[in-house]
Specification:
The complex is a heterotrimer of chains A (338), B (325) and C (470). Helices cover 42% and strands 10% of the residues of chain A. Chain A has helices spanning 5-8, 16-41, 56-65, 79-83, 89-97, 129-144, 162-173, 222-237, 266-273, 277-287, 292-315; strands spanning 71-75, 120-124, 150-155, 178-184, 215-218, 243-248. Chain A starts with a helix and ends in a 23-residue tail after the last helix. By secondary structure, chain B is an alpha/beta fold. Chain B folds into two domains: 2-183, 3-Layer(aba) Sandwich (Rossmann fold), CATH 3.40.50.970; 196-323, Rossmann fold. Helices cover 39% and strands 21% of the residues of chain B. Chain C has nine helices and 18 strands. Chain C is globular, with a radius of gyration of 26 Å. The chains are: A alpha/beta (338), B alpha/beta (325), C alpha+beta (470). Chains A and B meet through strand 2, helix 6 and helix 7 of A and helix 3 and helix 4 of B.
Chain lengths: 338, 325, 470
């Protein structure tokens, strides 16, 4: 189901080539997160990591619709959002493992994946911060007249924090080219979003408070996500200002590695697993007449890629100790005194 | 040379840099049309237009966050935070995001931004609008901190802050806005991290910041004329980067250190300097290190109460006399 | 407990063990003399700091060691019963202390350098009862003279800067005056003390390595440039090595000339009135005082009185300032012949009469010749009189005794014809006449000032009613 401009507009055509790319993209996200899960279980990834298994469609759909020079901002659950901007599996796994092959050579970790050269402007661990920052990137694009758009991902829990409200209002009054995407997976950390929110749809039902159109979509249907993304990006690029999109989805695992997610009712979990975006899309592609062999080829290539990436990442050395006090300042150092 | 007020020096410094670099932009509450609540940004909207000088809603998190996002993507924003006490509202963006992002991203992100605010007391605004909060930022690695004491330093240091590729917290002392001083004509830039020795004496070294600098100078005159004590006075100008070498060199000459701090006692910047001197210059100290500070209490609104709370020249004189024998 | 080589005065950095009065194994009482030591200026008896048995003697007679070196070790009485091997070094296992006697806490290193009287004074002191109206001084008057500023409360409150400088320069802080609050020794006090030391012969380099800290630039280096080394002596010539005192004198003289720009000025004095008095009391004086009354005490007295009006000549240069001394401590040069030149000090000479000065000079000369001068005899001099007159010289250009700024040489007094003016007209008389020549430091004063001072001295000598002074 869809509402808002995704529902109103005619179906934008999606080519077979694009669909295959969408599938590949979702599959890459899936195998990456699954591999991260396995490595964590083998104690090769320490600390915490927040997996987005089951939430591949939102990442893949937007990733496909964005231009290379558009900006991504997302939460600490951002491995997928990083991957879809073109960052390698090796760099992501190695960053999770905290070694010198990592995207930030181990200095940031899972929650802060950033690749400026891919315009992936960061994963943010404090709820709500990235919305205010995404506004700034959008303002910068507007100021420089480049038609770049900032896409900002956040969870359902974010809609109750102050920064959300400040950022929405700010983006609207300055008519910033920013797309706010709420990936509503129905749970904040361990608490159901419904229990703590004054409205039913945490993002869509707040849109009108900021003069925005409510947009509520099936976040597990990558075609819907893709089309919605295109519309929102197009609006922003043409100076039409921000959008707020609520994409309903579900995570297969708990909030973080430490959490087996036992607080969700079995029925609910079962129902959502049935709407797993990957098998769902695979079936759709086959129904559309796409050759199974092509799909299997994508699957084989993707599996080979994750294995290759894992091998390289596992064998990379730890970061050099000299790195510890580098890059506090722009001159590469950290001196606060002479 | 021109005679400018401290507040006009702010506008002059911003204007100098905005003329020089089209990526410098200014945002904040009431900064554009109204010229700032302290009238420190008068004339900028007229000269640079509404695209570069923008009024915002009352949304400190959104304002500071927007500055960060803009700085990440090619602009050099200046935030006007109005009252430094409001850092509390935006502290996540400052301490968790701005201060740490370059480090966490292994140097991928550069944040050439300045957050200006009106800091400190003396204007009877009460406890929530009069704090000296330099030490809040000093405790967070990744932030540069500047607090000028006079109009020339305002312009020169603000220019340097804007040119810096690092995030700079620029603390203007609100009670100094009307003070006039000589400001050099033409391009004026003063490097960050260089303290200024304003007075040379042989008996004691007084280190002060912002509003406390003119008070320390006044105290030094009294000490000389009435007590025969000859004091060096150092205007620290920046807390980060800290000009430790100047402090150590000057304290080594006199063997005695007094800090004068507007902030409340605990964890004030003077404690850090006292610690550095006690560690690195211990064998040159000819007496205990004395800190003259506001006591560890919120600031009162009434004239006489607020005046009594902040260090006065009399208290500075007393602090020095207790030390110098 | 260690017996250390003490610092016998401001300028001293070494000492020589001249003779041991005790040997290893001897039992000694506290304060009993155990050895004699000497420096270039004085010899001194060293007492045992505690009662006990001498367990080690580490420095043999005739050996010169630095101040602070351990000379001997005394075991406390409690362990006296245990046999201590006489010739073994300290590595021999120490006997376990008997349970009955508590171990002595080891005293600070300066303890051994304190005169023995201090210890006895402590034992004798009883705090006054609250009802006492006459308060006992904490230290006896004799000790005050020896210890200088020690009697004030904060003299021993040593700041880190003071401690470090004392350690680097091996100072006995008991010899440093404290001018801070309650007698506290300030860093400036120590820096000035060091500067005076540096102006004196052969100070040791500071213990601290690496470049001198920049803050010590306030202590100007006064090292004279080393003279160019001479070639080998011509054949047939005899080499006479400098004695210790010759060496030290040589260094002091070179340094003094390098420090002070010397200017010589002289006046010719008619000693007629002085001579009249001298001759009139001559025998009675000698009988009463045990020494002859010479011209020197009169000259000394005149100098003291003139210095009251010309205080800049009774001073020391410190950086860009002149430190004017509050009293006149007259250094009187005494020629010890082969032993060299010493200049012991008569303190507060400006408060003395001619007779008192005469006695003081005689006393100090006698002690000098007997080798009985003490460290405090050399400290605190503010102006020097150099008496070369016994050999009848005309004039001498003396070298200033650092850190003073002037020195007066008294040369021969001989009968000469002089013009005597009177209202009836001029006439010739035979008078005893002598030249007083002053070398002054041109940093401190100019020629006119010095000339006026000398004129004053001359007038005092020529016109005072000296009869009442003797």
């Amino acid at each position: 189901m869809a509402s808002g401009f995704a529902a109103r507009s005619p179906q934008l055509a999606i080519s077979t080539e694009t669909r295959l790319k969408l599938y590949r993209s979702m599959l890459e996200c899936r195998v990456l997160e699954k591999r991260a899960y396995d490595l964590f279980m083998q104690n090769l990834i320490k600390g915490t990591s927040h997996l987005a298994l089951g939430m591949e469609a939102t990442a893949a759909g937007f990733g496909m619709a964005m231009r290379p020079d558009d900006y991504t901002f997302c939460t600490y659950r951002g491995h997928n959002h990083t991957l879809v901007r073109g960052v390698g599996m090796t760099e992501i796994l190695a960053e999770l493992m905290g070694n010198s092959a990592g995207l930030m050579r181990g200095k940031g970790g899972s929650m802060h994946l950033t690749s400026v050269k891919h315009n992936m402007m960061g994963s943010y661990a404090i709820i709500g911060a990235q919305l205010t920052i995404a506004n700034g990137a959008a303002w910068s694009a507007q100021y420089r007249g480049t038609e770049q758009v900032a896409v900002c991902f956040f969870g359902d829990g974010t809609t109750n924090i102050g920064a959300f409200h400040e950022a929405l209002n700010f983006a609207v009054i300055w008519k910033l080219p920013v797309v706010f995407v709420c990936e509503n997976n129905l749970y904040m950390e361990y608490t159901s979003i419904h229990d703590v929110t004054a409205v039913e749809h945490p993002a869509a039902d707040r849109a009108s408070a900021y003069g925005l159109e409510p947009v509520l979509i099936d976040g597990n249907d990558v075609d819907v996500v893709y089309r919605t993304a295109q519309r929102a990006l197009d609006l922003a690029r043409k100076g039409g200002g921000p959008s707020l999109i609520e994409a309903e989805t579900y995570r297969h695992g708990g909030h973080s590695r430490a959490d087996p997610g036992k607080y969700r009712p079995d029925e609910e979990v079962k129902a959502w697993l049935a709407k797993d975006p990957l098998p769902r899309y695979r079936s759709r592609l086959l129904e559309m007449g796409i050759n199974a062999a092509e799909i299997e080829k994508i699957e084989a290539e993707t599996n080979a890629e994750i294995d290759r990436a894992t091998e390289i990442a596992r064998n990379a050395p730890p970061p050099p100790l000299e790195l510890a006090d580098k890059d506090v300042w722009a001159d590469g150092g950290s001196a606060w005194r002479n | 040379m021109a005679q400018l007020t401290y507040r006009d020096a702010v506008a002059a410094g911003i204007a100098q840099e905005m003329r020089r670099d089209p990526n410098v932009v200014l945002l904040g509450e009431d900064v554009a049309a109204a010229g700032g609540v302290f009238k420190a940004t008068v004339g900028l909207l007229d000269e640079f237009g509404a695209k570069r000088v923008r009024d915002t809603p009352i949304s400190e998190q959104a304002i500071v966050g927007a500055a960060m996002g803009a700085a990440m993507t090619g602009l050099r924003p200046i935030v006007d935070l109005m009252f430094s006490d409001f850092f509390g509202v935006a502290w996540d963006i400052v301490a968790n995001q701005i201060a740490k992002t370059r480090y966490m991203t292994d140097g991928q992100v550069t944040l050439p931004l300045v957050i200006r605010s009106a800091n400190g007391a003396g204007s009877r605004f009460g406890a929530q609008h009069s704090q000296s909060v330099e030490n809040w930022s000093m405790m967070i690695p990744g932030l540069k901190i500047v607090a000028p004491s006079n109009p020339s330093d305002v312009k020169g240091l603000l220019a340097a802050a804007i040119r810096s590729d690092d995030p700079v917290m620029f603390f203007e002392q609100k009670s100094l806005y009307a003070v006039k001083g000589e400001v050099p004509d033409g391009e004026h830039v003063i490097d960050l991290g260089k303290a200024n020795v304003l007075r040379d004496g042989k008996d004691v070294t007084i280190v002060a910041l912002a509003l406390m600098v003119p008070r320390a100078l006044k105290a030094a005159d009294v000490l000389k004329e009435q007590h025969g004590i000859d004091a060096t006075v150092i205007d620290l100008r920046s807390l980060v980067p800290l000009d430790t070498q100047t402090i150590l060199r000057e304290v080594a000459k006199t063997g005695r250190l007094v800090t004068v701090e507007e902030n409340p006692r605990l964890c004030g910047w003077g404690a850090e300097i006292a610690s550095i001197v006690a560690e690195e210059l211990f064998w040159d100290l000819d007496g205990p290190i004395v800190r003259v500070t506001t006591p560890h209490i919120p600031l009162a609104a009434a004239n006489n109460l607020e005046d009594a709370q902040l260090p006065t020249p009399e208290r500075i004189v007393a602090g020095v006399r207790q030390l110098v024998d | 407990m260690n017996v250390l080589m003490p610092q016998l005065g401001e300028t001293v950095t070494e000492g020589t063990v001249s003779s041991w009065k005790k040997k290893v194994g001897d039992t000694v009482a506290a304060d009993e003399i155990i050895l004699d030591i000497e420096t270039d200026k004085v010899s001194m008896e060293i007492p045992a700091p505690i009662a006990g048995v001498i367990t080690e003697i580490r420095v043999q007679e005739g050996t010169t060691v630095e101040v602070g070196t351990v000379l001997a070790v005394i075991g406390s009485s409690a362990s006296a019963g245990v046999e201590a091997p006489a010739s073994k070094p300290a590595v021999a296992p120490a006997p376990p202390p008997p349970a009955a006697a508590p171990a002595q806490p080891s005293p600070p290193s300066w303890y051994a350098a304190m005169p023995p009287d201090m210890n006895t004074a402590k034992e004798q002191y009883t705090p006054p009862a609250p009802s006492d109206t006459i308060r006992q001084p904490a230290v006896s008057a004799a000790n005050v003279a020896q210890l200088g500023a020690v009697s004030r409360d904060d003299h021993q409150r040593l700041s880190p800067a003071v401690r470090r400088l004392a350690a680097e320069y091996r100072l006995d802080l008991n010899t440093v005056q404290g001018s801070g609050r309650n007698g506290r020794i300030t860093r400036r006090n120590v820096l000035e003390f060091i500067q005076r030391q540096q102006n004196a012969p052969a100070p040791r380099a500071p213990v601290a390595e690496a470049a001198a800290p920049s803050h010590l630039s306030s202590v100007p280096s006064t090292r004279a440039p080393a003279p160019a080394p001479a070639g080998p002596p011509p054949t047939g010539a005899k080499t006479v090595p400098f004695t210790r005192i010759r060496k030290l004198t040589a260094e002091h003289m070179v340094r003094s000339k390098a420090t002070s720009p010397h200017v010589l000025q002289a006046v010719e004095v008619d000693f007629h009135r002085v001579d009249v008095v001298r001759r009139s009391v001559k025998d009675a004086w000698k009988a009463r005082h045990g020494h002859s009354l010479t011209y020197l005490p009169f000259i000394a007295s005149a100098v003291c009185r003139a210095l009251e009006q010309f205080p800049n000549l009774n001073s020391s240069v410190h950086g860009d300032s002149l430190i004017l001394h509050p009293s006149v401590n007259l250094s009187v040069a005494v020629d010890l012949g082969a032993e060299g030149l010493v200049a012991p000090v008569i303190k507060n000479a400006d408060r003395m009469s001619v007779a008192q000065i005469a006695d003081a000079i005689a006393e100090i000369a006698q002690r000098s010749r007997a080798g009985k001068l003490k460290p405090e005899d050399f400290s605190g001099g503010t102006y020097t009189l150099s008496n070369s007159g016994t050999f009848g010289t005309l004039i001498t250009a003396p070298i200033i005794n650092q850190p003073q700024v002037a020195i007066l040489s008294t040369d021969g007094v001989r009968k000469k014809p002089v013009v005597v003016e009177s209202s009836e007209g001029d006439s010739i008389a035979i008078r005893p006449v002598g030249v007083l020549a002053q070398s002054f430091d041109h940093r401190a004063v100019d020629g006119a000032y010095s000339a006026a001072f000398l004129d004053k001295v001359r007038k005092i000598l020529e016109t005072s009613n000296w009869v009442v002074e003797v």
